[in-house]
Model the fold of this input.
Amino acid sequence: MRGLTTGLAADTAHGAVVPPVYLSSNYAYEEFGQRPNFDYSRGGNPTRALLQDALATLEGGAGATVTASGMAAIGLVIETFVPIGGHVVAPHDCYGGTWRILDTWATRGRLSVDWVDQTDLDDLREALTRPTDLLLVETPSNPLLRVTDIAAAADIAHRSTPTPGRTVVAVDNTFCSPVLQHPLGLGADLAVASDTKFLNGHSDVVGGSVVAAGTEDAEALAYLANVTGVTASPVDCWLTLRGLRTLAARMRTHCDNARAMVEVLTGHRAVRAVHWPGLPDHPGHDLALRQQEDFGSLLSFELAGVEAVRAFMTGLEGFILAESLGGVESLVCHPATMTHAAMTQAARDAAGVTDAMIRMSPGIEPADDLAACLTEALDRAAAA
Ligand SMILES: *Cc1c(COP(=O)(O)O)cnc(C)c1O
Done:
């Protein structure tokens, strides 16, 4: 997969197979008045530039900006494309931090937001009759794994702008990564990611990125990233570039492990519901089959109630109870009290996040070991 080998054996100084990390904050001018390729690392850094090239190649875009976190990337998209008083349409069940940044800016009068169930294209069409600067899509969604039709959503947004402006379509591609899904190929203008998750994949970096389909958008993002100083550190970029080398292999194993966990969950009496696009009765199954290379590894399931959740978590082996996802290690979390705690109860209810729900991010450990640990925990939940 082109992109995964970016920077390898490209070192002109010593022929290093693995590119060095450039920590220097500044770069010498060889001659008076002659600006070097890089001058100051906030705006440009050779290590960050390699990661940006790799991500732009993987997503099929004109250019990328790598930021200090996924939220910094989403904040940068808002700053770049939503004017003061502008309007955003976002998923009603988006990532908790995305909900929080939009809610915070809306509360302070920076912008207005419509929260829409984007799996219903009629609702989306209706929302976009209002002049909209930014359509934010997140698919599959968190934690219910609802699937939104990127091509249809982008088409509706691009056709329906009843203003002189334009509706920029940004897809949060964190859950699939460019190995499983190509938003820009489906008509989106931007692919946003929390690099913290699958892209780095080793739970040792917080980072983010925006890849733009068009050169002008890529330049506008790079400009404002330098202006606001949200760019990522060279060490984080170097680690993410190293993580990226194994992305394709990791995604394969993540998806296979998800399949194995779903088999355990669907066959166990403690489980009331399983949400994963790979299940034929999942509402987004056919769309995921078309739109994605595989069904992804994130899944969620529901037990009988909070007491069953407590029994499941108490003594749990093989899975770490922690926020985040997409690392080589298997995680579980309780969205209502963890990842989605920043949402109001009403917002959680609207998004379908129940107190009996557990989200799982299977890692890349042997599936048999994980299945044994999961079965033990479900047995405890059933007895609670
Ligand atoms: C984690 C996450 C973010 C935010 O990224 P950070 O790196 O934590 O700032 C945004 N969107 C999705 C889907 C995420 O999972």
